[in-house]
Amino acid sequence: MKIISYNVNGIRAAIAKGFIEWLQQANPDVICLQEIKATEEQIPVNDITAAGYPYQYYYPATKKGYSGVAILSKIKPNNVFYGTGIQHMDFEGRNLRADFDDCSVMSLYLPSGTNIERLDHKFMFMDDFQTYVNELKLTIPNLIICGDYNICHEAIDIHDPVRNKTVSGFLPAERAWLDGFMKSGFIDSFRHFNKDPHHYSWWSYRAGARGNNKGWRIDYNLVSDSLQHKLKRAVILPDAVHSDHCPVLVEIE
């Protein structure tokens, strides 16, 4: 199973930049999208079906044009679960899960901490998400949590760790949470195969950051420890330019 995670920063804008044609070429079995910023009625679902993805699940935010996640699949899931059941997490459309025979794939869009109020919300979300996943793993042990975590794990994952150490997304407390989350039973699939620096998944639109590769690695496919023996490949796809993020891919045998 080939799985891609992609924060498209507005699915309609991404489609206008060739997203559907790219999707056909990339040809994942499942793609998890974040920040779709649209409702299903606003999305050309027939075009996506024609591209080979008949199974489409959208979970938009209550607020129009904001946040939202989706899962597009070639394979029919056994079950699809919208949200977490935790209201403060769900009204912004940040979590969607599809259960298949051998694993469950989750699309996650973790909040950013753009100001003090949002940072407090982000920490509450992270704590409650950890508890939610701990309970979920009791019944669904083979989890693949794909998405925009809005956190760089280690210094290798950001272009300037010194000057960004007080910026949300690289705060010590955020990094400690992500480290603990991984140690609770997940593999950073990209780092499992690649230990090299200068691999990022998001770049600011300002000051030519992408052209100069001054980026952050904040998008992950975290795979349950129980699936480690099935990990085949994990790569970042920086040549896809429909968004300020790029897709990240994992293959499971």
From TrEMBL:
PANTHER family in alphabetical order: AP ENDONUCLEASE (PTHR22748), DNA-(APURINIC OR APYRIMIDINIC SITE) ENDONUCLEASE (PTHR22748:SF6)
Classification via Pfam families: Exo_endo_phos (PF03372)
Alphabetical GO biological process terms: base-excision repair
Similarity comment: Belongs to the DNA repair enzymes AP/ExoA family.
Site entry (Interaction with DNA substrate), positions: 245
Co-factor note (free text): Probably binds two magnesium or manganese ions per subunit.
Gene3D superfamilies on file: Endonuclease/exonuclease/phosphatase
Domain Endonuclease/exonuclease/phosphatase: 4-245
InterPro entries: AP_endonuc_1, AP_endonuclease_F1_BS, AP_endonuclease_F1_CS, Endo/exonu/phosph_ase_sf, Endo/exonuclease/phosphatase
Keywords: Hydrolase, Magnesium, Manganese, Metal-binding
Residues with site note (Transition state stabilizer): 150
UniProt protein name: Exodeoxyribonuclease III
Reported cofactor(s): Mn(2+); Mg(2+)
Top-rank taxon: Bacteria
Site (Important for catalytic activity): 219
Active-site residues, record numbering mapped to chain: 109, 148 (proton donor/acceptor), 245 (proton acceptor)
Organism this protein belongs to: Flavobacterium aquidurense
Sequence positions that bind Mg(2+): 7, 35, 148, 150, 244-245
Molecular-function GO terms, alphabetical: DNA binding; DNA-(apurinic or apyrimidinic site) endonuclease activity; double-stranded DNA 3'-5' DNA exonuclease activity; metal ion binding; phosphoric diester hydrolase activity
Transmembrane regions listed in the UniProt entry: none
SUPFAM superfamilies registered for this protein in UniProt: DNase I-like (SSF56219)
